[in-house]
Amino acid sequence: MLAELEELKTVALTELAAAADLKAVESWRIAYLGSKGRLKGMMPQLKTVSKEDKPAVGKRLNEVKVALEQGFESRKAEVADSGVTGGPQVDVTQPGADLPEGRRHVLSRTIDEIVDIFGRMGFTTAAGPEVEDEWHNFTALNIPAGHPARDPIDNFFMGEQEGSRTLLRTQTSTVQIRTLEKQKPPVRIIACGRVYRPDTHDATHYSMFHQVEGLCVDRGISMVDLKTTLFQFARAYFGPEAEVRMRPSFFPFTEPSAEVDMKMKIKGEWQWIEIGGCGMVDPNVLEAVGVDPEEFTGFAFGLGIERVAMRKYGISDIRWLYENDVRFLNQF
After folding, report:
1. According to the model, what pLDDT value does residue 115 have?
2. Which residue has the higher pLDDT, 37 or 307?
3. Burial class of residue 320, CB neighbours in 10 A (0-12, 13-18, 19+)
4. What are the structural domain ranges in the chain?
5. Tens digits of per-residue pLDDT, 24-50?
6. Which of 83, 140, 273, 295 has the maximum number of C-beta atoms within 10 A of its C-beta?
7. CATH class of 106-329
8. Number of H helices, E strands in the chain
9. What is the CB neighbour count within 10 angstroms for residue 12?
10. Which of 33-42, 149-158, 173-182, 290-299 has the weakest average pLDDT?
11. What distances in angstroms separate CA 98 from CA 95, 215, 265, 326, one per listed residue?
């Protein structure tokens, strides 16, 4: 039995040295040191050893067991340190897998493009709060108390602050007032931002959407300047064949006022699409912020950013812009 133990030790350590990964080392442990392993299998043979030889054989059996256990722990540590785990081997010199790149939302891209175009025409950007008071959202914009535009059914009123009701702004025209309160003419700004109206959601309406507001106030500003500005934007954004037309309309804060249509190519065909409103700043609005309407005139326009994006990229339902469906967003 002593000879068998020596042979077992020699063979076991040889196989252990050949184990190249943790999986192989663990298989070796089960084969030799497990409850049904070869070393355990030699235990019953002690019964056949003579009484005189049993102490020496038992001692040698324990020594072989200790040697195999120490060899197992040592080999396990060596394999772990070498990084060989038994899994698929990775060549670290190979180029890595390409990861999908993120992209800006189609509305954010549209806003950037609009800001860039008007920036080249000399317009700077301005911003204002989305929670407004009635002075900036209505009164200063020549919308008096009792006007239908103030009806609670058409606004998101939130409460009162310093004696005035607050609401989520219904138009970016509020930024006109806040800018002219701080900066006297000449002024040439655009303001892009969210506005809120309690509209029923459908393919063309949403209770939160974006507008770009333009304002130019200086001496001698006329409707010609307004139409030229919109014409240049249309050509820069929709292509050299785009056109602009104005239809008479009414807004409390501009006089005269007009609806803005732009002719653009949609699915290969040129079509006229209503894109926003515009007009000359009403003298009452200028007076409300301390600007002399006898000395200065100005124009203002408001364009729906969702409308611009939907026409530019062929999107037929405004709700898709807010559903965060990756299949839709990956198209842009």
Report:
1. 95
2. 307
3. middle
4. 2-81, 106-329
5. 888 888 888 887 888 787 777 777 777
6. 140
7. alpha beta
8. 11, 10
9. 22
10. 33-42
11. 9, 45, 36, 19
